[in-house]
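TL;DR need structure tokens for one chain.
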Amino acid sequence: MKCIVGLGNPGIKYQQTRHNVGFMVIEELLKRHQWTLDKSKFKGHFTLESLHSEKVILLQPQTFMNLSGESIRPLIDFYDIVPEDVTVIYDDLDLPLGKIRLRQKGGPGGGHNGIRSVIDQLGTKEFNRLRFGIGRPETPMSVIDYVLGKFNESDHDTLEQSINHAADAMEAWISQPFQKVMNDYNK
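>> reply
TL;DR here they are.
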């Protein structure tokens, strides 16, 4: 069984913000397969489905970004999923808008508190990540205001293409080794 986690903040206030690109990728996967997040437990909304003869859980933690690990840990413990079968999708300031980068392990990079929470709760850095580029602000602005801000109208085409690309990568991972998906999608 595999688990795909999209990080974000719950609530209408945060919908379509840069910090919620993980939620947006999960929503694209749900839309493609006519699935819904039909379970609320473990401080998150999730669904358990089957794709390519593999069971997969899609999860949106409802803990707010900085406590995401508090949702992921109990869910993977309950379903007996090892961290290597988890991919966490999150925003990355250090990648240009629309660029995705898959990695098998690593630290919280640039101080991403959502990833720091996941590492702390899982007790390991050995889980897969899909970093979704949101770029840095072009004008002087605090990082918090930037990541909690909505995308510019001019970014929407790039954003949509990148969400689709990230969803394609996650669908590929369901039936292929993560290393192969990294090689195919990190180009």
